[in-house]
Amino acid sequence: MVNATSLDVEYQFGFQDVPERFGHNFNAFHRVGLHRGLRTMAEDLGVEILLGKEVIDLDCGDGLLNFRDGACAKHDLIVVADGIRSELVKTVSDLDVVPQKIGKSVFRGLIPMQRLRDDPLIWSQLQGEPSGFYSTMHNGVFSMTYPCSSDEIMNVAVFHSTRPGHENDEGWSSPATKDEVLSVLDSEALHPFWRAVVNAAPSDEDFKCFPISLREPIPRYNNGGAILIGDAAHPFEPTHAQVGCLGIEDAQSLATLFRNTSSASTDIARSCQLYNDLRLPRGNVT
User: Fold this and answer.
1) What is the pLDDT of residue 64?
2) CATH 3.30.9.30 spans which residues of the chain?
3) Cβ proximity of 172 and 108 under 8 Å
4) What residue spans in the chain does CATH classification 3.50.50.60 cover?
5) Minimal CA–CA distance to 279: which of 251, 237, 244, 260?
6) Is a pLDDT exceeding 80 seen at residue 133?
7) Which pLDDT does position 82 carry in this prediction?
8) Distance (Å, rounded) from C-alpha 236 to C-alpha 208?
9) Which residues on neighbouring strands pair with residue 110, listed in sequence order?
């Protein structure tokens, strides 16, 4: 964390001991790259991914799925992973929870690192610094940068009070412009570094606006042979940057718990309950 005006370091937290403490490096992934890698791994194992199969109804007890196109399917285990606005969370958890916008949004952009290296104002601050988070707070606006994709792309996030015209934004794809991002960084007291980073984006298309929503924790992640994982189970604010991590933890927990589980419905339900007992405290508290 740096001072908004001078860029003097106010707080620094190192990750050098992360491998020793937690057994692995600290990594930041471009979400598209993470999705692509997971999909490749699944398909290499023979998993067939069917797109455009929207589920409209789920019977947890019988393992029945009804699709928008009129088709239906029956499975021993059903994993629900349809995000914070899950249409099936009530069916699984018995609690009707709806995400609520909190009047805050985040402008997000991905900028090629070379464009930052080419700007003397920007690179004079970043050169020689270890890869990590670089952030500041000013006038209620929280700005953050961190590299991903092997330090070839810089993620830029500007958290702010939702601006006029963005009240009805949904998801990560709502368009924004560089001028809109710059408008929340217009204080003369703010170091010009932050505006320079935004201006380094090749075009307006590099920025999106995402509304921040909160959802109440749910009492359970399982029902019969159906379970919730990822944001459908435990949505996070984007400031945590942990949704992918927790989703992978969920999946690995399933792999471990179901390694020796038979196809008998009672065994599946028992493993689903174990998953819930292990993951519910972790997801809801984190």
Assistant:
1) 97
2) 100-214
3) yes
4) 76-95+216-285
5) 251
6) yes
7) 93
8) 19
9) 155
Paired with 105 in beta bridges are 160, 211
DSSP state of 68: T
| Sheet bearing 134-138, strands edge to edge | 134-138, 141-148, 153-161, 100-112, 207-214, 174-175
User: Cβ distance 190 to 249 under 8 Å?
Assistant: no
Q: How long a stretch of residues is the chain? A: 286
Q: How many CA atoms lie within 13 A of 58 on its CB side?
A: 27
- Give me 12's structure tokens: 């620094």
Answer yes or no: CATH 3.50.50.60 is held by domain 76-95+216-285. Answer: yes
The full 3-state SS of 124-184, as one line of letters, equals HHHCCCCCCCEEEEECCEEEEEEEECCCCEEEEEEEEECCCCCCCCCCCCEECCHHHHHHC
* End-to-end CA, the chain: 22
- Written as one letter, the residue type at 95 is L
Q: Where are the alpha helices (DSSP H) in 170-222?
A: 178-183, 192-199
Tokens linked to 248? 């992978």
Type of residue numbered 55: V
Give the separation between CA 110 and CA 202, rounded to whole angstroms: 10
CATH C-level class of 100-214:
alpha beta
Helical packing angle, 243-257 and 265-285, nearest 10°: 150
Q: What is the pTM of this model?
A: 0.87
Confidence at residue 50, expressed as pLDDT on a 0 to 100 scale: 93
For residue range 178-222, list pLDDT tens digits in order.
999 999 998 889 999 999 999 999 998 899 999 999 999 999 999
Q: What is the pLDDT of residues 75-110, one digit of tens each?
A: 999 999 999 999 999 999 999 999 999 999 999 999
Q: Which amino acid is at 209?
A: C
Six token digits for residue 3: 């001072």
